């Protein structure tokens, strides 16, 4: 996967490795692009049969990024918000979210598996995925369905993510969010230092990058 909007230098001091122990492309979407394209969207090329995991803290901007995404025909996008909206339409009015949170997770993950088994060339998956086991499960699912796993990580400070939650009007409880924040901090370090193998490529951006949008190309 490459970001065509701006060339990103490879940091040889922090390589990432895939399952074959070859170097994995790692890069950061820079806030300041000397080429003068800092206000443009990320352009991500995903050749062949692929799975792109868009991950980061709740409130980091994943839904914002996907809401403005431009992609070729046939790309499947699996957003937990979509699964939740479908359930809301079927449940009695006023049903509190905690009562069906588990069902939203089941519906979303089931949809991800079915999409990966399908014919779509690219599947885009929206998950916080701050836990290593979740990201590992996504990589296993991708490879077991003949897809190359790519990661787009939104590296956002907890206070910005919390502000994003208030903007959207849905706030994660304090204890679960603190757990997410701790895992996200460790994830950012692991990705920068190449201690998470298995990805075909890894890219990071911040909340301002998420607001600029995403363009997928093949």
From TrEMBL:
SUPFAM superfamilies reported in the protein's UniProt record: P-loop containing nucleoside triphosphate hydrolases
InterPro entries recorded: P-loop_NTPase
Molecular function terms from GO: kinase activity
Protease in keyword set: no
Domain of life: Bacteria
Region (Disordered): 1-40, 183-206
Keywords noted in UniProt: Kinase, Transferase
Name of this chain's protein: Kinase
Native organism: Pseudonocardia parietis
């Amino acid at each position: 996967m490459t970001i065509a909007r701006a060339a990103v230098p490879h940091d040889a001091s922090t390589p990432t490795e895939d399952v074959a122990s070859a170097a994995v492309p790692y890069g950061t979407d820079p806030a300041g692009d000397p080429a003068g394209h800092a206000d443009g969207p990320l352009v991500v090329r995903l050749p062949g049969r692929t799975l792109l995991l868009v991950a980061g803290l709740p409130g980091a901007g994943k839904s914002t990024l996907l809401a403005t995404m431009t992609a070729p025909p046939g790309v499947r996008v699996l957003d937990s918000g979509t699964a939740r909206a479908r359930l809301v339409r079927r449940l009695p009015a006023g049903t509190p979210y905690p009562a069906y949170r588990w069902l939203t997770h089941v519906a979303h993950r089931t949809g991800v598996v079915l999409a990966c088994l399908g014919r779509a060339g690219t599947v885009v998956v929206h998950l916080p995925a701050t836990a290593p086991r979740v990201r590992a499960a996504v990589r296993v699912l991708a490879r077991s369905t003949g897809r190359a796993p790519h990661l787009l990580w939104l590296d956002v400070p907890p206070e910005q993510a919390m502000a994003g939650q208030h903007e959207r009007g849905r706030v994660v409880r304090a204890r679960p969010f603190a757990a997410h924040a701790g895992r996200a901090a460790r994830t950012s370090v692991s990705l920068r230092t190449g201690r998470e193998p298995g990805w075909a490529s890894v890219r990071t951006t911040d909340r301002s990058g998420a607001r600029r949008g995403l363009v997928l190309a093949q």
